[in-house]
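User: structure tokens for THUMP domain-containing protein, please.
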Amino acid sequence: MGENSKRKAENSAGGDGKRTKTKKQWRTPTNGRDGGSYQQQQTIQAGDVGIFVTCIKGKEGKATGEMRDLLDDYAERLYPEALAGGNDEDEQDEDGAGSGVDDIEKEISAEVQEIRKPKAARLFTPIQLSTQCIIFFKTIDPVEPVSLVKRICEDAMGDNARKRTRFTQRLTPMTFMGRVSAEGLEQVALKVLGPHFHQEPFKARTFAIRPTIRNHNILTRDSIIKQVASLVGEGHKVDLKNYELLIIVEVYQHICGVSVVDNDFEKLKRFNISELFEPTPKEQAKEKSGSE
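Assistant: Done. Predicted tokens:
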């Protein structure tokens, strides 16, 4: 008994008589409703579609959570067919009577089916970026980012709108994304601009271009505007104040994205839901003077 205790003491002390400490490994918390991590995909990739979300500095995690809840809610309302898988199995034998063992088996089976159902979370995949104050939600069909963001902002602007977010600020939909280079931007822009500017029969439009560049130092704002304007094509005119269509270009590190929104963008506070839910005194004064 004494020898065993002595050996344990020697082993715990190490060769030099000092007890060694091991560092704890930090692990990303799993915040998903189904126990999975939010970070299923680590970076934005060429071909992705989605929504950039800006937020209060240091509140990226909370903004991710509240936006995920908000998007889940809209998914259930706007895309019920995409979330309807597994309902048939759940509804079978609801009224049937059975033994206690059968009931337990049915309960377990129902829970398994619930887990396997397509969830709203699969329509929206949050991606934490390496830059503060911004996150990205990757979307998949049938979600169309521009119409979804506009709907969210229109609802937030309503008279009876209940504030749904605390840390989220601006939503920027991206119709398509690709590698950032002159060639990559051209490919993305042509794909996105076509339905708006190159349709038949031809319809002349007034437009503006609004680029945002983050963590990137190759393409410049002026070069982006010049290139995208040339891709719009002839017959359309630039009008920075009274545009019909606004071309949004987002450049983040090695990725660029493009979307086209209508002139409701200004009325909807440039898709800043924080301003829509709670306008700042400056914005309220501006609205008041405009209505007089």
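User: Anything notable?

Assistant: Residues 20-39, 86-97 have pLDDT under 50 and may be disordered.
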